[in-house]
Amino acid sequence: MNSPTPAIVTQSAVRPLPRLALLVFCLAYVLPGFLGREPWKVEDLSAFGVMRELALGLTDWWEPQLLGLPPEEPGLLPYWMGALAMIALPFLDPETASRLPFILLLAFTLACTWYAVYHLARQPAAQPVAFAFGGEASPRDYARAMADAGLLALIASLGLARLSHETTPELTRLAFATLMLLSMARLGRRGSPWTSVVTASLALLALLLSGMGWPAVCLLGGWIVIQLRNGANGDAFGSSIPQADARHRAALLSLGALLLVLVALGLRHDWLAVPPWLSTTPIDAPEATTSAHTWTSYGRMLIWFTWPAWPLALWTLWRWRRQLGSLHLALPLWAVLVGLVDSALAERSDRALLVALPAFAVLAAFALPTLRRSAAALIDWFTLLFFSFCALVIWVIWVAMQTGVPAKPAANVAKLAPGFTPEFSFGLFLLALLATVAWLGLVAWRVGRHPQAIWKSLVLPASGATLCWLLLMTLWLPLLDFGRSYGPMSRRVASLLPADACVLVDGLSQAQIAALQHHGGLDVHRIDSQVAPRCRSLLVDLDQQPTLDERVELTHWAFKATVRRLNDDRRETILLYLRVGG
Fold first, then answer.
1. Residue 291 — φ and ψ, nearest 5°?
2. Minimal CA–CA distance to 435: which of 382, 378, 482, 388?
3. What does 34-60 look like in DSSP terms, one character per residue?
4. pLDDT digits over 24-68, tens only?
5. Which of 223, 284, 350, 439 is the most exposed, having the fewest neighbouring CB atoms within 10 Å of its CB?
6. Which has the closest alpha carbon to 190: 132, 139, 266, 134?
7. What are the extents of the domains in the chain?
8. How far, in Å, are 256, 502, 521 from residue 579 at the CA level?
9. What is the value of pTM for the model shown?
10. How far, in Å, CA of 495 to CA of 488, rounded?
Protein backbone atom coordinates (compact mmCIF):
# COMPACT_ATOMS: atom_id res chain seq x y z
CA MET A 1 0.00 0.00 0.00
CA ASN A 2 1.34 3.45 -0.92
CA SER A 3 2.36 5.94 1.75
CA PRO A 4 0.36 9.17 1.86
CA THR A 5 1.45 11.60 -0.83
CA PRO A 6 2.89 14.96 0.31
CA ALA A 7 1.50 16.76 -2.76
CA ILE A 8 -1.45 19.06 -2.13
CA VAL A 9 -2.56 20.60 -5.42
CA THR A 10 -5.82 22.26 -6.37
CA GLN A 11 -7.34 22.25 -9.83
CA SER A 12 -6.66 25.97 -10.19
CA ALA A 13 -2.92 25.35 -9.78
CA VAL A 14 -2.54 23.04 -12.77
CA ARG A 15 -3.22 25.44 -15.60
CA PRO A 16 -0.91 24.42 -18.46
CA LEU A 17 1.47 26.80 -20.13
CA PRO A 18 0.03 28.10 -23.42
CA ARG A 19 1.25 25.68 -26.09
CA LEU A 20 2.30 28.40 -28.54
CA ALA A 21 4.28 30.21 -25.84
CA LEU A 22 5.97 26.94 -24.86
CA LEU A 23 6.88 26.22 -28.50
CA VAL A 24 8.35 29.68 -29.07
CA PHE A 25 10.22 29.40 -25.80
CA CYS A 26 11.79 26.08 -26.83
CA LEU A 27 12.76 27.44 -30.25
CA ALA A 28 14.39 30.45 -28.61
CA TYR A 29 16.51 28.05 -26.58
CA VAL A 30 17.32 25.45 -29.25
CA LEU A 31 18.24 27.50 -32.32
CA PRO A 32 20.74 30.08 -30.91
CA GLY A 33 24.13 28.43 -30.66
CA PHE A 34 23.56 26.14 -33.62
CA LEU A 35 23.05 28.74 -36.34
CA GLY A 36 25.47 31.40 -37.49
CA ARG A 37 28.63 30.43 -35.64
CA GLU A 38 31.86 28.67 -36.56
CA PRO A 39 32.78 25.31 -34.99
CA TRP A 40 34.39 25.94 -31.63
CA LYS A 41 37.35 24.25 -30.06
CA VAL A 42 37.94 21.60 -29.01
CA GLU A 43 35.36 18.81 -29.08
CA ASP A 44 32.92 20.57 -31.39
CA LEU A 45 35.56 21.22 -34.04
CA SER A 46 37.26 17.83 -33.84
CA ALA A 47 33.89 16.06 -34.22
CA PHE A 48 33.12 18.24 -37.24
CA GLY A 49 36.47 17.26 -38.74
CA VAL A 50 35.61 13.55 -38.50
CA MET A 51 32.17 14.15 -40.03
CA ARG A 52 33.79 16.05 -42.88
CA GLU A 53 36.23 13.20 -43.55
CA LEU A 54 33.31 10.75 -43.72
CA ALA A 55 31.30 12.99 -46.03
CA LEU A 56 34.27 13.33 -48.39
CA GLY A 57 34.86 9.57 -48.39
CA LEU A 58 38.32 9.88 -46.87
CA THR A 59 37.78 7.40 -44.03
CA ASP A 60 35.94 4.16 -43.35
CA TRP A 61 32.39 4.47 -41.98
CA TRP A 62 32.90 1.69 -39.44
CA GLU A 63 36.24 3.11 -38.26
CA PRO A 64 36.03 6.88 -38.74
CA GLN A 65 39.33 8.69 -38.43
CA LEU A 66 40.93 12.07 -38.93
CA LEU A 67 44.35 11.79 -40.58
CA GLY A 68 44.56 8.17 -39.44
CA LEU A 69 43.70 8.96 -35.81
CA PRO A 70 40.45 7.80 -34.14
CA PRO A 71 38.00 10.45 -32.90
CA GLU A 72 38.72 11.96 -29.52
CA GLU A 73 35.20 10.94 -28.43
CA PRO A 74 34.23 7.31 -29.19
CA GLY A 75 31.10 6.47 -31.10
CA LEU A 76 29.77 5.97 -34.61
CA LEU A 77 26.20 7.26 -34.74
CA PRO A 78 26.96 10.98 -34.08
CA TYR A 79 29.56 11.11 -36.84
CA TRP A 80 27.29 9.20 -39.23
CA MET A 81 24.46 11.66 -38.62
CA GLY A 82 26.58 14.73 -39.30
CA ALA A 83 28.22 13.23 -42.38
CA LEU A 84 24.93 12.02 -43.88
CA ALA A 85 23.45 15.49 -43.39
CA MET A 86 26.39 17.01 -45.29
CA ILE A 87 25.89 14.53 -48.13
CA ALA A 88 22.11 14.94 -48.25
CA LEU A 89 22.22 18.76 -48.11
CA PRO A 90 25.06 19.82 -50.45
CA PHE A 91 23.41 23.22 -51.03
CA LEU A 92 24.11 24.16 -47.38
CA ASP A 93 27.52 24.97 -46.02
CA PRO A 94 29.00 21.94 -44.21
CA GLU A 95 28.84 23.57 -40.78
CA THR A 96 25.10 24.24 -40.97
CA ALA A 97 24.29 20.91 -42.58
CA SER A 98 26.16 18.93 -39.92
CA ARG A 99 24.23 20.71 -37.16
CA LEU A 100 20.71 20.02 -38.41
CA PRO A 101 20.52 16.48 -36.94
CA PHE A 102 21.76 17.82 -33.62
CA ILE A 103 19.15 20.59 -33.62
CA LEU A 104 16.55 17.85 -33.92
CA LEU A 105 18.26 15.85 -31.17
CA LEU A 106 18.06 18.74 -28.71
CA ALA A 107 14.40 19.35 -29.57
CA PHE A 108 13.81 15.61 -29.21
CA THR A 109 15.43 15.69 -25.76
CA LEU A 110 13.08 18.46 -24.61
CA ALA A 111 10.05 16.58 -25.94
CA CYS A 112 11.10 13.29 -24.31
CA THR A 113 11.63 15.04 -20.99
CA TRP A 114 8.13 16.53 -21.14
CA TYR A 115 6.49 13.19 -21.87
CA ALA A 116 8.62 11.34 -19.31
CA VAL A 117 7.44 13.68 -16.55
CA TYR A 118 3.89 13.43 -17.85
CA HIS A 119 3.80 9.62 -17.65
CA LEU A 120 5.54 9.53 -14.28
CA ALA A 121 3.11 12.10 -12.87
CA ARG A 122 0.22 9.84 -13.92
CA GLN A 123 1.52 7.10 -11.58
CA PRO A 124 -0.88 6.41 -8.70
CA ALA A 125 1.83 7.11 -6.10
CA ALA A 126 2.57 10.50 -7.67
CA GLN A 127 -1.00 11.82 -7.49
CA PRO A 128 -1.85 14.68 -5.10
CA VAL A 129 -4.01 14.31 -2.03
CA ALA A 130 -7.72 13.80 -2.71
CA PHE A 131 -9.79 16.46 -0.90
CA ALA A 132 -12.79 15.50 1.20
CA PHE A 133 -15.16 17.74 -0.79
CA GLY A 134 -13.39 17.65 -4.16
CA GLY A 135 -11.39 20.38 -5.89
CA GLU A 136 -8.10 18.52 -6.12
CA ALA A 137 -6.23 18.53 -9.43
CA SER A 138 -7.41 16.05 -12.03
CA PRO A 139 -4.76 13.42 -12.93
CA ARG A 140 -4.43 14.54 -16.56
CA ASP A 141 -4.19 18.27 -15.84
CA TYR A 142 -1.81 17.61 -12.95
CA ALA A 143 0.45 15.54 -15.20
CA ARG A 144 0.47 18.22 -17.93
CA ALA A 145 1.37 20.97 -15.47
CA MET A 146 4.11 18.81 -13.95
CA ALA A 147 5.47 18.06 -17.43
CA ASP A 148 5.64 21.80 -18.15
CA ALA A 149 7.56 22.26 -14.92
CA GLY A 150 9.99 19.44 -15.75
CA LEU A 151 10.72 20.93 -19.17
CA LEU A 152 11.35 24.35 -17.62
CA ALA A 153 13.66 22.78 -15.02
CA LEU A 154 15.73 21.15 -17.77
CA ILE A 155 16.05 24.37 -19.79
CA ALA A 156 16.98 26.28 -16.64
CA SER A 157 19.91 23.92 -15.92
CA LEU A 158 23.04 26.00 -16.46
CA GLY A 159 25.14 23.07 -17.65
CA LEU A 160 22.82 22.26 -20.54
CA ALA A 161 23.34 25.38 -22.67
CA ARG A 162 26.81 25.04 -24.21
CA LEU A 163 27.22 21.27 -24.36
CA SER A 164 23.76 20.69 -25.84
CA HIS A 165 24.53 23.07 -28.72
CA GLU A 166 27.63 21.22 -29.92
CA THR A 167 27.78 18.59 -32.65
CA THR A 168 29.38 16.02 -30.35
CA PRO A 169 28.49 12.50 -29.15
CA GLU A 170 27.39 13.92 -25.79
CA LEU A 171 24.23 15.37 -27.32
CA THR A 172 23.43 12.04 -28.97
CA ARG A 173 23.84 10.30 -25.63
CA LEU A 174 21.67 12.89 -23.91
CA ALA A 175 18.85 12.48 -26.43
CA PHE A 176 18.72 8.68 -26.40
CA ALA A 177 19.21 8.38 -22.65
CA THR A 178 16.16 10.61 -22.29
CA LEU A 179 14.27 8.43 -24.76
CA MET A 180 15.12 5.40 -22.66
CA LEU A 181 13.84 7.19 -19.55
CA LEU A 182 10.60 8.00 -21.39
CA SER A 183 10.26 4.37 -22.49
CA MET A 184 10.55 3.10 -18.94
CA ALA A 185 8.12 5.76 -17.70
CA ARG A 186 5.54 4.62 -20.26
CA LEU A 187 6.22 0.98 -19.47
CA GLY A 188 5.11 1.57 -15.90
CA ARG A 189 1.58 2.43 -16.98
CA ARG A 190 -1.22 0.06 -17.90
CA GLY A 191 -1.58 -0.94 -21.53
CA SER A 192 0.56 -2.69 -24.11
CA PRO A 193 4.21 -2.58 -23.04
CA TRP A 194 5.78 -3.67 -26.30
CA THR A 195 6.03 -0.21 -27.84
CA SER A 196 8.07 0.88 -24.83
CA VAL A 197 10.25 -2.23 -25.14
CA VAL A 198 10.99 -1.41 -28.78
CA THR A 199 11.83 2.24 -28.10
CA ALA A 200 13.99 1.31 -25.09
CA SER A 201 15.86 -1.25 -27.20
CA LEU A 202 16.46 1.27 -29.98
CA ALA A 203 17.63 3.83 -27.43
CA LEU A 204 20.06 1.32 -25.91
CA LEU A 205 21.46 0.45 -29.34
CA ALA A 206 21.85 4.14 -30.19
CA LEU A 207 23.65 4.77 -26.91
CA LEU A 208 26.08 1.92 -27.57
CA LEU A 209 26.71 3.26 -31.08
CA SER A 210 27.31 6.69 -29.53
CA GLY A 211 30.11 5.45 -27.30
CA MET A 212 28.10 5.24 -24.08
CA GLY A 213 28.92 1.76 -22.79
CA TRP A 214 28.60 0.75 -19.16
CA PRO A 215 26.49 3.78 -18.05
CA ALA A 216 23.81 2.82 -20.60
CA VAL A 217 23.89 -0.80 -19.44
CA CYS A 218 23.66 0.24 -15.79
CA LEU A 219 20.79 2.62 -16.53
CA LEU A 220 18.63 0.08 -18.30
CA GLY A 221 19.55 -2.79 -15.99
CA GLY A 222 18.64 -0.78 -12.90
CA TRP A 223 15.38 0.43 -14.43
CA ILE A 224 14.35 -3.14 -15.29
CA VAL A 225 14.98 -4.23 -11.70
CA ILE A 226 12.97 -1.26 -10.39
CA GLN A 227 10.05 -2.11 -12.67
CA LEU A 228 10.08 -5.77 -11.66
CA ARG A 229 10.21 -4.95 -7.95
CA ASN A 230 7.35 -2.51 -8.30
CA GLY A 231 5.28 -5.25 -9.84
CA ALA A 232 6.27 -8.02 -7.43
CA ASN A 233 6.13 -5.98 -4.22
CA GLY A 234 3.24 -3.62 -4.73
CA ASP A 235 2.79 -2.90 -1.01
CA ALA A 236 6.31 -1.58 -0.69
CA PHE A 237 6.96 -0.17 -4.12
CA GLY A 238 3.71 1.15 -5.45
CA SER A 239 2.12 -1.58 -7.62
CA SER A 240 2.36 0.34 -10.87
CA ILE A 241 2.55 -2.99 -12.72
CA PRO A 242 -0.23 -5.38 -11.60
CA GLN A 243 1.00 -8.81 -10.61
CA ALA A 244 -1.59 -10.44 -12.86
CA ASP A 245 -0.40 -8.59 -15.95
CA ALA A 246 1.92 -11.17 -17.52
CA ARG A 247 2.55 -9.00 -20.55
CA HIS A 248 4.52 -6.46 -18.54
CA ARG A 249 6.65 -9.14 -16.95
CA ALA A 250 7.30 -10.78 -20.30
CA ALA A 251 8.23 -7.42 -21.80
CA LEU A 252 10.63 -6.61 -18.98
CA LEU A 253 12.23 -10.05 -19.09
CA SER A 254 12.68 -9.85 -22.87
CA LEU A 255 14.28 -6.43 -22.47
CA GLY A 256 16.57 -7.84 -19.79
CA ALA A 257 17.52 -10.75 -22.06
CA LEU A 258 18.36 -8.33 -24.87
CA LEU A 259 20.50 -6.32 -22.46
CA LEU A 260 22.44 -9.43 -21.41
CA VAL A 261 23.03 -10.44 -25.04
CA LEU A 262 24.34 -6.99 -25.92
CA VAL A 263 26.61 -6.97 -22.88
CA ALA A 264 28.01 -10.39 -23.78
CA LEU A 265 28.62 -9.33 -27.38
CA GLY A 266 30.16 -6.07 -26.29
CA LEU A 267 32.60 -7.72 -23.91
CA ARG A 268 33.47 -10.39 -26.46
CA HIS A 269 34.21 -7.93 -29.26
CA ASP A 270 35.74 -5.27 -26.99
CA TRP A 271 33.34 -2.46 -27.93
CA LEU A 272 31.73 -2.14 -24.52
CA ALA A 273 33.92 -0.12 -22.18
CA VAL A 274 34.50 -1.78 -18.80
CA PRO A 275 33.73 0.33 -15.71
CA PRO A 276 36.91 1.76 -14.18
CA TRP A 277 36.39 -0.07 -10.89
CA LEU A 278 36.29 -3.44 -12.71
CA SER A 279 39.45 -2.82 -14.69
CA THR A 280 42.27 -5.26 -14.01
CA THR A 281 44.87 -2.76 -15.19
CA PRO A 282 47.07 -1.74 -12.25
CA ILE A 283 46.78 1.92 -11.34
CA ASP A 284 49.74 3.88 -10.09
CA ALA A 285 49.28 5.22 -6.60
CA PRO A 286 49.84 8.89 -7.48
CA GLU A 287 47.21 8.70 -10.22
CA ALA A 288 44.75 6.80 -8.05
CA THR A 289 44.96 9.28 -5.22
CA THR A 290 42.47 12.07 -5.77
CA SER A 291 43.41 15.30 -4.08
CA ALA A 292 41.04 17.36 -2.00
CA HIS A 293 41.42 20.12 -4.58
CA THR A 294 40.10 17.82 -7.32
CA TRP A 295 37.04 16.88 -5.29
CA THR A 296 36.48 20.53 -4.42
CA SER A 297 36.58 21.44 -8.10
CA TYR A 298 34.19 18.60 -8.88
CA GLY A 299 31.81 19.81 -6.18
CA ARG A 300 31.81 23.34 -7.55
CA MET A 301 31.16 22.02 -11.05
CA LEU A 302 28.30 19.89 -9.75
CA ILE A 303 26.66 22.85 -8.00
CA TRP A 304 26.62 25.23 -10.95
CA PHE A 305 26.17 22.61 -13.68
CA THR A 306 22.90 21.25 -12.24
CA TRP A 307 21.59 24.55 -10.87
CA PRO A 308 18.71 25.17 -10.10
CA ALA A 309 17.55 21.55 -10.36
CA TRP A 310 19.74 20.07 -7.61
CA PRO A 311 18.27 21.94 -4.57
CA LEU A 312 14.76 21.16 -5.82
CA ALA A 313 15.74 17.52 -6.36
CA LEU A 314 17.04 17.29 -2.78
CA TRP A 315 13.79 18.80 -1.52
CA THR A 316 11.88 16.19 -3.52
CA LEU A 317 13.84 13.35 -1.96
CA TRP A 318 13.11 14.72 1.51
CA ARG A 319 9.42 15.46 1.08
CA TRP A 320 8.72 12.26 -0.87
CA ARG A 321 11.06 10.10 1.24
CA ARG A 322 8.32 7.56 2.01
CA GLN A 323 7.73 6.96 -1.71
CA LEU A 324 11.33 6.62 -2.91
CA GLY A 325 10.62 3.13 -4.24
CA SER A 326 7.78 4.36 -6.46
CA LEU A 327 8.46 4.63 -10.16
CA HIS A 328 8.10 8.41 -10.40
CA LEU A 329 11.05 8.79 -8.00
CA ALA A 330 13.03 5.58 -8.37
CA LEU A 331 13.53 5.84 -12.14
CA PRO A 332 15.00 9.38 -12.20
CA LEU A 333 16.88 8.81 -8.94
CA TRP A 334 18.69 5.81 -10.43
CA ALA A 335 19.62 7.87 -13.49
CA VAL A 336 21.01 10.63 -11.25
CA LEU A 337 23.09 8.14 -9.26
CA VAL A 338 24.54 6.53 -12.40
CA GLY A 339 25.30 9.96 -13.83
CA LEU A 340 27.04 11.11 -10.65
CA VAL A 341 29.21 8.00 -10.46
CA ASP A 342 30.11 8.20 -14.14
CA SER A 343 30.98 11.89 -13.96
CA ALA A 344 33.05 11.42 -10.79
CA LEU A 345 35.16 8.77 -12.54
CA ALA A 346 35.27 10.38 -15.99
CA GLU A 347 38.09 12.55 -17.24
CA ARG A 348 35.58 15.15 -18.46
CA SER A 349 33.14 15.26 -15.58
CA ASP A 350 30.77 17.88 -16.97
CA ARG A 351 30.29 16.05 -20.27
CA ALA A 352 29.57 12.77 -18.50
CA LEU A 353 27.07 14.48 -16.20
CA LEU A 354 25.09 15.92 -19.11
CA VAL A 355 22.95 12.78 -19.57
CA ALA A 356 21.73 13.03 -15.95
CA LEU A 357 20.22 16.51 -16.37
CA PRO A 358 16.77 15.28 -17.55
CA ALA A 359 16.56 13.04 -14.48
CA PHE A 360 17.50 15.99 -12.26
CA ALA A 361 14.73 17.96 -13.98
CA VAL A 362 12.18 15.19 -13.30
CA LEU A 363 13.04 15.16 -9.60
CA ALA A 364 12.97 18.96 -9.50
CA ALA A 365 9.45 19.00 -10.95
CA PHE A 366 8.11 16.84 -8.13
CA ALA A 367 9.37 19.36 -5.60
CA LEU A 368 6.89 22.00 -6.77
CA PRO A 369 3.68 20.44 -5.33
CA THR A 370 5.33 20.45 -1.90
CA LEU A 371 7.18 23.77 -2.11
CA ARG A 372 6.34 26.45 0.43
CA ARG A 373 5.33 29.87 -0.87
CA SER A 374 8.30 31.52 0.83
CA ALA A 375 10.71 29.13 -0.91
CA ALA A 376 9.08 29.83 -4.28
CA ALA A 377 9.40 33.58 -3.67
CA LEU A 378 13.09 33.14 -2.80
CA ILE A 379 13.69 31.28 -6.07
CA ASP A 380 11.94 34.04 -8.00
CA TRP A 381 13.86 36.92 -6.45
CA PHE A 382 17.22 35.23 -6.66
CA THR A 383 16.61 34.32 -10.31
CA LEU A 384 15.36 37.80 -11.12
CA LEU A 385 18.43 39.50 -9.66
CA PHE A 386 20.95 36.97 -11.01
CA PHE A 387 19.81 36.82 -14.63
CA SER A 388 18.98 40.52 -14.82
CA PHE A 389 22.51 41.29 -13.65
CA CYS A 390 24.00 38.83 -16.16
CA ALA A 391 21.96 40.32 -19.00
CA LEU A 392 23.01 43.83 -17.97
CA VAL A 393 26.69 42.82 -17.99
CA ILE A 394 26.34 41.31 -21.48
CA TRP A 395 24.70 44.50 -22.79
CA VAL A 396 27.25 46.82 -21.14
CA ILE A 397 30.22 44.92 -22.55
CA TRP A 398 28.61 44.85 -26.00
CA VAL A 399 28.09 48.62 -25.89
CA ALA A 400 31.71 49.01 -24.77
CA MET A 401 32.90 46.89 -27.70
CA GLN A 402 30.90 49.00 -30.16
CA THR A 403 31.57 52.49 -28.77
CA GLY A 404 34.56 52.25 -26.41
CA VAL A 405 32.37 53.45 -23.53
CA PRO A 406 32.62 52.44 -20.71
CA ALA A 407 36.36 52.40 -21.20
CA LYS A 408 37.23 49.69 -18.66
CA PRO A 409 35.17 46.87 -20.26
CA ALA A 410 36.42 47.90 -23.71
CA ALA A 411 40.02 47.72 -22.48
CA ASN A 412 39.42 44.29 -20.94
CA VAL A 413 38.03 42.94 -24.22
CA ALA A 414 41.01 44.35 -26.13
CA LYS A 415 43.36 42.70 -23.64
CA LEU A 416 41.67 39.30 -23.67
CA ALA A 417 41.09 39.21 -27.43
CA PRO A 418 43.91 41.15 -29.07
CA GLY A 419 43.27 41.78 -32.75
CA PHE A 420 39.50 41.45 -32.47
CA THR A 421 37.52 43.96 -34.53
CA PRO A 422 33.93 44.47 -33.28
CA GLU A 423 31.14 43.96 -35.79
CA PHE A 424 27.59 45.30 -35.76
CA SER A 425 24.74 43.16 -37.07
CA PHE A 426 21.33 44.79 -37.05
CA GLY A 427 19.58 41.42 -37.21
CA LEU A 428 21.41 40.01 -34.19
CA PHE A 429 20.92 43.28 -32.31
CA LEU A 430 17.17 43.18 -33.00
CA LEU A 431 16.89 39.59 -31.74
CA ALA A 432 18.75 40.50 -28.56
CA LEU A 433 16.56 43.57 -28.04
CA LEU A 434 13.35 41.58 -28.51
CA ALA A 435 14.55 38.92 -26.08
CA THR A 436 15.36 41.56 -23.46
CA VAL A 437 11.97 43.23 -23.85
CA ALA A 438 10.30 39.82 -23.52
CA TRP A 439 12.27 39.21 -20.31
CA LEU A 440 11.13 42.51 -18.85
CA GLY A 441 7.54 41.69 -19.75
CA LEU A 442 7.83 38.26 -18.19
CA VAL A 443 9.25 39.73 -14.99
CA ALA A 444 6.36 42.19 -14.81
CA TRP A 445 3.91 39.31 -15.29
CA ARG A 446 5.60 37.12 -12.69
CA VAL A 447 5.67 39.73 -9.93
CA GLY A 448 2.05 40.69 -10.64
CA ARG A 449 -0.97 39.20 -8.96
CA HIS A 450 -1.93 36.18 -11.03
CA PRO A 451 -3.50 32.84 -10.11
CA GLN A 452 -0.85 30.48 -8.81
CA ALA A 453 0.30 27.81 -11.28
CA ILE A 454 2.46 24.91 -10.19
CA TRP A 455 5.12 25.70 -12.82
CA LYS A 456 5.42 29.45 -12.06
CA SER A 457 8.50 29.04 -9.85
CA LEU A 458 10.52 27.71 -12.80
CA VAL A 459 9.42 30.25 -15.40
CA LEU A 460 12.00 32.86 -14.42
CA PRO A 461 14.95 30.41 -14.09
CA ALA A 462 14.23 28.88 -17.50
CA SER A 463 13.55 32.24 -19.15
CA GLY A 464 16.64 33.81 -17.58
CA ALA A 465 18.88 30.99 -18.80
CA THR A 466 17.37 31.28 -22.27
CA LEU A 467 17.76 35.06 -22.29
CA CYS A 468 21.44 35.00 -21.35
CA TRP A 469 22.21 32.21 -23.80
CA LEU A 470 20.44 34.09 -26.60
CA LEU A 471 22.25 37.34 -25.75
CA LEU A 472 25.60 35.56 -25.81
CA MET A 473 24.77 33.96 -29.18
CA THR A 474 23.75 37.30 -30.70
CA LEU A 475 25.56 40.25 -29.15
CA TRP A 476 28.74 38.38 -28.30
CA LEU A 477 28.77 35.96 -31.24
CA PRO A 478 31.59 37.66 -33.21
CA LEU A 479 33.72 37.86 -30.06
CA LEU A 480 33.05 34.24 -29.14
CA ASP A 481 33.83 33.10 -32.68
CA PHE A 482 37.10 35.00 -32.51
CA GLY A 483 38.05 33.61 -29.12
CA ARG A 484 36.78 30.00 -29.37
CA SER A 485 37.30 29.28 -33.06
CA TYR A 486 40.45 28.27 -34.88
CA GLY A 487 39.11 30.07 -37.95
CA PRO A 488 41.19 33.26 -37.65
CA MET A 489 44.33 31.27 -36.92
CA SER A 490 43.75 28.88 -39.83
CA ARG A 491 43.09 31.70 -42.25
CA ARG A 492 46.32 33.44 -41.18
CA VAL A 493 48.24 30.24 -41.89
CA ALA A 494 46.54 29.86 -45.26
CA SER A 495 47.41 33.44 -46.20
CA LEU A 496 51.10 32.54 -45.93
CA LEU A 497 50.81 29.58 -48.32
CA PRO A 498 49.59 28.93 -51.86
CA ALA A 499 45.96 27.90 -52.31
CA ASP A 500 45.30 24.20 -51.61
CA ALA A 501 48.86 23.81 -50.36
CA CYS A 502 50.03 20.38 -49.19
CA VAL A 503 50.94 20.74 -45.52
CA LEU A 504 52.53 18.37 -43.02
CA VAL A 505 51.60 18.68 -39.35
CA ASP A 506 53.41 17.61 -36.19
CA GLY A 507 51.84 17.74 -32.73
CA LEU A 508 48.66 19.55 -33.77
CA SER A 509 45.35 18.56 -32.19
CA GLN A 510 42.48 17.10 -34.19
CA ALA A 511 40.58 20.36 -33.77
CA GLN A 512 43.48 22.35 -35.25
CA ILE A 513 43.81 19.90 -38.13
CA ALA A 514 40.09 20.12 -38.88
CA ALA A 515 40.26 23.92 -38.82
CA LEU A 516 43.21 24.00 -41.23
CA GLN A 517 41.30 21.74 -43.60
CA HIS A 518 37.96 23.54 -43.36
CA HIS A 519 38.80 27.18 -42.73
CA GLY A 520 42.21 27.26 -44.40
CA GLY A 521 41.37 24.99 -47.34
CA LEU A 522 44.73 23.22 -46.89
CA ASP A 523 45.64 19.67 -47.89
CA VAL A 524 46.84 18.40 -44.50
CA HIS A 525 48.87 15.22 -43.85
CA ARG A 526 50.89 13.73 -41.02
CA ILE A 527 54.67 13.85 -41.24
CA ASP A 528 54.85 10.04 -41.51
CA SER A 529 52.35 9.80 -44.39
CA GLN A 530 53.26 8.50 -47.84
CA VAL A 531 52.72 11.90 -49.45
CA ALA A 532 55.14 13.64 -47.09
CA PRO A 533 57.96 13.98 -49.68
CA ARG A 534 55.82 16.10 -51.99
CA CYS A 535 54.57 18.51 -49.29
CA ARG A 536 56.54 21.72 -49.11
CA SER A 537 55.10 23.17 -45.88
CA LEU A 538 55.35 21.99 -42.28
CA LEU A 539 53.30 23.14 -39.29
CA VAL A 540 54.65 22.28 -35.85
CA ASP A 541 53.13 22.82 -32.43
CA LEU A 542 55.44 24.98 -30.31
CA ASP A 543 55.72 22.32 -27.60
CA GLN A 544 56.94 19.77 -30.16
CA GLN A 545 59.63 22.03 -31.62
CA PRO A 546 62.50 21.00 -29.26
CA THR A 547 62.27 17.38 -30.45
CA LEU A 548 61.43 18.09 -34.08
CA ASP A 549 64.86 16.95 -35.30
CA GLU A 550 63.99 13.43 -34.14
CA ARG A 551 61.21 13.19 -36.72
CA VAL A 552 62.38 15.28 -39.69
CA GLU A 553 65.68 16.32 -41.22
CA LEU A 554 65.85 19.98 -40.19
CA THR A 555 68.39 20.82 -42.89
CA HIS A 556 65.58 20.34 -45.40
CA TRP A 557 63.37 22.95 -43.74
CA ALA A 558 63.61 26.69 -43.14
CA PHE A 559 61.61 28.57 -40.50
CA LYS A 560 59.02 30.90 -42.04
CA ALA A 561 56.63 32.33 -39.41
CA THR A 562 55.01 31.99 -36.01
CA VAL A 563 51.21 31.99 -35.84
CA ARG A 564 49.30 32.22 -32.57
CA ARG A 565 45.56 31.86 -32.02
CA LEU A 566 45.69 35.09 -30.03
CA ASN A 567 48.60 37.48 -30.17
CA ASP A 568 49.95 36.53 -26.74
CA ASP A 569 48.69 32.93 -26.51
CA ARG A 570 51.78 30.71 -26.28
CA ARG A 571 49.64 27.70 -25.40
CA GLU A 572 48.34 27.48 -28.97
CA THR A 573 51.22 28.52 -31.16
CA ILE A 574 52.11 27.01 -34.53
CA LEU A 575 55.50 27.28 -36.22
CA LEU A 576 55.52 27.32 -40.03
CA TYR A 577 58.45 25.82 -41.93
CA LEU A 578 58.99 25.73 -45.70
CA ARG A 579 60.98 23.07 -47.49
CA VAL A 580 64.36 24.37 -48.60
CA GLY A 581 64.25 25.13 -52.27
CA GLY A 582 60.43 25.26 -52.22
1. -75, 160
2. 388
3. TBS-PPPTTHHHHHHHHHHHHHTT-S-
4. 999 999 999 999 899 998 899 999 999 999 999 999 999 999 988
5. 284
6. 139
7. 20-38+104-276+294-370, 375-484, 487-579
8. 61, 11, 20
9. 0.92
10. 11
